[in-house]
Structures are given as C-alpha cells and as structure tokens.
Amino acid sequence: MTHIQLSVFLENKKGRLYDVCSFLGEHKVNIRALTVAESDNFGVLRLLVKDPQRVAGLLKGNSFVVNETEVVALEVNDKPGGLAKVLGAINKHHINVEYMYGFVEPKARKAMMVFRFDDPVAAVKALKADRIKVVSSKELGSI
Amino acid sequence: MIWDQKMECASRPEMKKLQSERLKKLVHYLWKGNAVYRRRFEHFNVKPSEIGDISDIRKLPVTVKEDLRDNYPFGLFTDYRHTTEIHVSSGTTGNPTVVGYTREDLKLWAQVMARSLALAGAVPGDMIQVAYGYGLFTGGLGAHYGALEMGLKVIPASSGQTKRQLKLMTDFRPRILACTPSYALFMLDEARALGIDPKASSWEIGIFGAEPWSESMRAQIEASWDMTATDIYGLSEIIGPGVAQECQHKAGLHFQWDVFYPEVLDPKTGENVKDGERGELVITTLTKRGIPLLRYRTRDIVTIEYSKCKCGRTTPRISKILGRTDDMLIIRGINVFPSQIEYVLLKIEGTQPHYLLVVDRQNNLDTLEVWVEVEEKMFSDEIKQMRALEETIKREIESVLGLDVKVKLVEPKSIERSEGKAKRVIDKRKI
Amino acid sequence: MSRVVRIHTSSGTTGIPTVIHHTQADLDAWTDLVARSITATGAGKPDIFQNMMTYGMFTGGLGLHYGAERVGMTVIPMGGGNTRRQIQIMKDFGTTVLHITPSYMLHLHAMLAECGVALKDLRLSKAYLGAEPYSEDTRRKIEKLWKIDVYNSYGLSEMNGPGVAFECVHKNGMHVWEDVYGVEVVDPLTGQALEDGRQGEVVFTNLLREATPLLRYRTRDIAAILKGSCPCGRTHRRISRIAGRTDDMLIINGVNVYPSQIESVIMKIPEVGNNYQIFLEKNGALDSLTVKVEISSGMFKGDLAQIDRLKERIRESLRASIIISPRVELHEPGSLPVFEGKAKRVVDERVKI
C-alpha cells in the first residue's frame, strides 16, 4: 500500500523547474502530486507519477539525479478538522513524519495527503487499524 | 634605520665571498647530515669539494615541494635533535609540509624579521599590531619574534575579530600594522560603520603580505588609512615572512641574500634568465640548521634587480609576485591547491571529485565556494540530509585548508568539462 | 609604558577588554614561571610539546609556548581545532606532552579510532589541562583512557596567564608560585580573608610585575588553599581545583563568555524579537552553545532561504564577538519562556566533567 515517490535534485537556478516539468510533459508523464522543498541554493522536487520506474529511468537518462522513496498516501475528508483527525491517529502510534504534502481531488470532495514516514510499512498497518483510508496504487493511478 | 648595516650594505665582492663560504659549509653539512641530499648529490655526481664559489650553486640539484611531502615527516631534517619549534603548512595532497626550527633558526628568523621591520620604517619603541594568524601559520609568530627582537611593543591580535582589532588600534594607537593587504581594506568598512575616521587612525606603516596584491590596492590602502603600505615576502618552507621586504622607496623587495640566496630561473629550462626578466624564484637557505633547503623552487614568478637602492642597501630587490608556475591559489593569505579539495572529496563516501572552486573577493575579503556535483549515491529526498552532506563536505574541507568555505551542491555535469578535463578554478578576483 | 613589549587582553563583560601590559622583565618572569611549572611535572628537554591552546591575545597559547621553549622542549604551535590534523601530528612527530582543555582531550580520544590511530601509535606521556573546570574523576578517566599523567594548570590573563599555579608530580593541588603571586582566599560577600582549607574566592596580588601590577585582584574563581605540605618538597602552598565562579561568566570549550556579550550582539539585529535564550549542552565531550532567538513577527516572509541567511548572519555576528560559533535556532514570537524580573536566559544542561 505504499507508493514510490521520485525525488529530483534541482539547483536553485532560473528555469530548472520548468526544464524538468516540460521534459516530463514531452514524455507524456502525468504528475499526480508534487511539491518542492527548498534550501538556500538547491531544491528537491518530489513527485508521484504513474509508472515511477519508467519515469525514473527517463529522468536518469537525461542526467537528472533521481531518488526513489517509499511514501504513503492517505485520504482526508476535505472539510475543517479532516487533517487533524488523521494526524491524531499518527500521533497516537508515535509514528515520525519526515515530511508531508497534500492535494485536493475536486470531484470526490476528498483531499489526499502524501506522507514520508520513518517506517512506512508499520505506519500503514497502524493507520489501517485506525480506519484511516490508505490510498492504493490503483486508486492513485485512476485520479 | 638599517638593522644590520654590515649584511645589508655589503659590497658585492664581500657578499660573494660570504655567500661562497656559507654555501661550501652548507653542502658539507648536508653531505654529512642528510641522507636524502646525500643520495641526490651522489645521483648527480657532485662532491662537496667541487663547490668552491657561489656560482657553483648551478651544479647542485633543485628541491621541490613534493620532496618535502615525499620525505615527510623527518626526511628533510638535517638536525632534528636540536629542533625547538615545528610548524606545518598545507601540502598539495595528504601530508602537510613540515617547517622545523632549531634555536639558531628561530634567531635567524627574528633577525630577518627585525631587518624587515626596519626596512618598513619601524624603530625600537614603536608599537606593532600583529593581525596575522598566530599558531601554525608562520605569519603571526614570525612578525612577533621580529618585533620582540627589535624592541617593539607587540599586540598579538592574531587574525579576525575586526571590531576588536579596531578597538585595539584606537585605544593603544600602534604605529605599525601587520596583516594581509586585503584585510587592511576589509577593515575600512568596519571602521566607517563604527564611526572611526580611517584617516585619523594611528597606523602609519603597514607590513602587508602573505598574498599577491597590486599597486592599485596599495594606492587605495595608503589613501584611505593615510599610511605607508609596504610589501613583505616569505614562505614557510624557507623560514616564513622575512625573506624579502620593501624599504620606504617601495622599489622592489630587498632580499636577505646573505642568508637566503636567490636565483631567478626559466621554469622550463632551469637556466638563469637575464637580469630584469621574469622567471621562477629559487632560494637556497645558506645558514639554516633544522631543515636547510638547496635551490628550493618557490613556483613564484618575479624579476630581480641588483643595483644599489636609494636607501643605501646593496641587497638585490625582487618585484612583487607576478604569478605562479603551478595552480596554487592564495585565499586570505592561505595557500590552497585544488588537489587538496579533490583529496577530501575522494575520502567522503558517495562523493565524486567533480568540483569547481569559485574564488571571489567581496567587500575586500576573499571567498571560496566549492561546487560539488551531486551523484545518485549521495542524493536523498530529505533536505536535512542534503544539508548534513553539505555540512560534512564543508567541515572536511575546512579542516584541511584551515579556511571558511561555502559548499554548493550542483546538478551532475553542470561543471563545464573542456576536452574531457574539467576546469577546476574560476578566479573572479580582480587584484 | 615606554618599556612595554607586549599587550594581552581578555574578554570583558561588556565588550571592553581587560588589558594587561608586559615589559620584557615581565615576560621573562612569566616565561620562568611556566618553565618552573613544566619542570615540576617532570617534563623537559627531550619532550615534544603540542600546544593546542589558541594563540594570539588569549594567553594560553603564547604563555606555555615561551615556557616550553625555555625548558628546551620542541614546540608545535598547533592552536585549537582541526582534530584530524592534531592527531596526525601527534602520531607523526611522536608528541609526548599536550596542553589542552579537558573537554577537547576527551573529544580527541573519541576521534582516535575514526582517524585510524591507536594508542600504541602514540608516544604521549603527559597532558596539561586548563582553561575550564573539571573534576578529579575526569582526570582519572582521562589518565586511564590515554594511559598518561594529567596535570592541572591554572592561570588567568590578569595574572599573566598560565603558570600562576601548577601541579607537581604528586598531583595533589596546584602550587601557587607565591614568590610572584600573593594569594588569599576571601569570603566573596564580606571580603574577609578565610583560613587555609576553607573555600572562597581566590584573590591575587602581583608582587613583581612592572607594567600592570594588580593589588588584591578578585578572580571570581572559587577554590580553597590546601593545608599541609607537599611531598615534593616545594613550600609554595597549593590551591584546590576551581569549584565554581562568583559571577555569571560561562566557560565554553575553554573560552570565557559573559551572557551580556551575547545579548549586546543579538539585540542589535532588527529581525530579532524580544526574547532569547542561551542553551548549553554536551555534544560528545565538547560543549555546544545554542542561541535561541525569537524572531520579530514583522520579518517572516515565508521564505526558507531568507531564514537561512538570517541564522547565518546571527551566527557570524556572535562569532565575531565571542569567538565561538554557536548554533542558532529561530523561534516563534512568544514561544521562549518569559521570566518575571531578571530573565533566566541561560540554561546549562552540560554534565559537569
């Protein structure tokens, strides 16, 4: 129930984000979720795509530095307090969140949160026990 | 004043005679006491008996920096037993360069530094602020020993801490400042920010060295601080500062040739260049005991002038350093070889030696940025791990160079490679 | 003043340095005392001495340097920091005596393995420890770890620097060189002299110095004069190790820092809010200083790079003033504890060594 997230190293240089996104567009890669974490002089672009192995290969072939990470996607009710409920469950199980980012799926009135946990497998188990909806690869692919 | 009238104003024949005697003694001393040089003499088929005159120096083998590294730590000591002080400076890779002083060597150092201070215009009783780094770096202790030898009042301020430097200057009113020329300029802004009028400063004489600088920098320092700025030359392999120094006529740096014999050679052929032509400065330490060096190739490019100076001294004068015959950089007075950085990067797991050194001068202070290409093995999706990597690289480089650096992680292949060989240095400084 | 040949200063509480002048005779006398101290520990001519104290205005470096040269040891003027280089030089040159702070001595040991150096590769036999307080247990621990003798060194720049009091081979308290330094221990509140054996504030008088002689100088250091005589035969009385301070001075990796110095730096930075905290802890054997600062609410622009730069600027300004480079943490306005009256700005969680 975990997903492979691709992380791409980017210099803080004008146009670099455009470069990678247009490259993905040319290769007909649809981005499901994306976030950029920035530092003083570099950034890390994190993205979820369908068929991550193929995309990773494409990027590497074009001399991007790519890293594959296991992440968990959770469904959150798109209303006030929705996220707090999920975080409450995470807290209760003493699971460490390294980082997270979210996106909204307008049709379903659901929000989706992507989490990077220190132990994703244990996290999925604990969250399922708490009836938090964990998004499967298939569901992610169909968005 | 002239500190050592006899040595600094000797006639050419007198000096030649003295140098010849000293060279003869030195060759015997090395033949008897130093296995490395002994082997080399034998290899070149030179016997001490063949050395009678200073011009015979051309029969002797040269010494290069790699010899110091290859014979680390004790090989080039001729007298280790009486060594009282050891300095090390950065080598090109791995092993540091060792500088050993016996008690006589320290005396010699104090002597040539006292001569240098007098050349710059100091007189006993003056106060000097030594803002060269103290410790392993020879700049601080060298100036310190010379100042005490001459009977100056010393403020051993060491480098950095600009506010405190300026406070010491305003409170104690030293007449002499010793530091790198770029630091003298750097202190200007800080002085103005503190409301100190640089023109009203107590510094009248500056003894600036450890890095190359230009006449325009001199003009700027002299005009802004209202002081006389003089150039000093030295290198730790020979003794540290005090090898050569400008007098108040600023017409070249007087070379202490009774103890450090200079030659200027074509770096390619090893032949003497004509007087006044550029070449590599090669120095023989005629009287040192701990680690005497024969015909040491400094890699510094200079010209030399043998005519008598208006100040009355007969010592030859070298030009400012006009360049290098290797890829050494001097950053804030510290010698940096690109190979040192490469060596560090190879030691850190996951890093590749694809790097670029970007040297710049901002607000009169040299900056060094090390660009390192990120490879897959070292890349993490977590910013904090990437920062930790940056920090590790920074710390390791700083520990080898003894210099603050900024590390910048860049994408692979973003460092330009020309014909397969990467360009390692971009020096944006306009000196 | 006309015969002054050297000037040293130390950090004052408010940024105005304490200034000590030395004439040539003063320097000679100081050098003699350091040489005397070194001799009392059994070290001498054949020793190779690696001086890891900072050189320059800080008297720890130059003070021992001159004394060591006088007894004829070979001196390697390393100064502080650069641990790998320190260990490499110890090994390559067969260093026998160190001058070092206790915390750095522990740190050095922890780094040996990482540098691929074993004790048997070294020829170390003695270490002079000073510039920061430590306990008898730590001495024993260091002696066991390194298989060497550790000697306690005491000095302060107002009294020249190192070489005011030093342990002899019996390691049972530091002999005060009473022919040069008159010593008293007084009640810090009343100023009344205390009898030997009782703990109080140590007060010194320079009996010899020409340039800056000080009368009954209050060191703010707490110690006791030890009763009884020493088996070494020296009649100079001994003082105990320093038990504490009567002011708020902090000693961080051997460097003296007053909280007021930190305050005066950070309060000049406009992005800094009203509250801050000085946090000390151990990072391995070394002290680690974190300055926690509340940002003023007007400055945050949601830009991480800007925050990085602000942290860097605060760190640099502090380093320029207190020499130490601290960690800087930025906090939300109102998140650091506020204390009524005199704010408790210093949290010291260092385990005493």
Summarize the structure.
By secondary structure, chain A is α+β, with helices and mostly antiparallel strands.
List the helices and strands and how they pair.
The complex is a heterotrimer of chains A (143), B (431) and C (353).
Chain A: E1 3-11, H1 16-26, E2 31-38, E3 42-49, H2 52-61, E4 66-77, H3 82-92, E5 97-105, E6 110-117, H4 120-129, H5 137-142
Chain B: H1 5-8, H2 12-33, H3 35-44, H4 65-70, E1 83-89, E2 97-102, H5 103-120, E3 127-130, H6 138-150, E4 153-155, H7 162-172, E5 176-179, H8 181-193, E6 205-208, H9 215-225, E7 228-235, E8 240-246, E9 253-255, E10 260-265, E11 279-285, E12 296-302, E13 304-305, E14 317-318, E15 323-324, E16 329-331, E17 334-336, H10 338-347, E18 355-362, E19 365-373, H11 383-401, E20 406-410, E21 417-418, E22 421-422, E23 425-427
Parallel strand pairs in B: 3-4, 3-5, 5-6, 6-7, 18-23, 19-20
Antiparallel strand pairs in B: 1-2, 7-8, 8-9, 9-14, 10-11, 11-12, 12-15, 13-14, 16-17, 18-19, 21-22
Chain C: E1 4-10, E2 18-23, H1 24-40, E3 48-51, H2 59-71, E4 74-76, H3 83-93, E5 97-100, H4 102-112, E6 126-129, H5 136-146, E7 149-156, E8 161-167, E9 174-176, E10 181-186, E11 199-206, E12 217-224, E13 238-239, E14 244-245, E15 250-252, E16 255-257, H6 259-266, E17 272-283, E18 286-295, H7 304-322, E19 327-331, E20 346-348
Parallel strand pairs in C: 3-4, 3-5, 5-6, 6-7, 17-20, 18-19
Antiparallel strand pairs in C: 1-2, 7-8, 8-9, 9-13, 10-11, 11-12, 12-14, 15-16, 17-18
Helix pairs in contact in C: 1-2, 4-5, 6-7
Task: Give the strand tally of chain B.
Answer: 23
The CATH class of the largest domain in chain B turns out to be Alpha Beta
Unreliable spans of chain A: none
The CATH architecture of the largest domain in chain B? 3-Layer(aba) Sandwich
CATH fold description of the largest domain in chain B: Rossmann fold
Write the CATH fold name of the largest domain in chain A.
Answer: Alpha-Beta Plaits
